[in-house]
Predict the 3D structure of the following.
Amino acid sequence: MTGFVQHGPGEFCAVMTREGEPLVEYEWWDPAPESGPPTIGRCRNCGHRGVVYEPLPADPARDELAERFAGWMGGMLDWDVKVREEHADLHKELFDLHAPVGVVVLDGKPGAAPVKVRQCRECGGDGWPCRTLRILAKPHRWAPGWDERWSA
């Protein structure tokens, strides 16, 4: 399991632990956690004091747009299967292959916090939907619900 500990403004450690192990070690003078692992303590990576940091989504508006695309495209592909579109099953398979996965990235800028982003499981890259899915969606662009921001 990988998590993050913040030591100060713009200072972060990536900490790898076994499943269930805390990211920080509780010290007697720290406030005792009410339940679960400690959130303040000595970093298991570097030994400095820190606070467990939960990365935030990089762009909530982009995440909302991706959710809308997933629902809209899923509906379009279900319709294609119903009307027996020639390659509908293959298109659904392609859609599933290029499903979004959530990853945490560090952009390398000094002081930048780690953020959660969506990437294509197959392509990786910057954002989701990926270019492959945007091209797959193009023939349906006249259907209700299409958003021009999904254009390839």
In short: The CA atoms of residues 75 and 92 lie 11 Å apart. The chain is about 25% helix and 25% strand. The first strand starts at residue 2 and ends at 8. The chain has two domains: 2-53, 56-150.
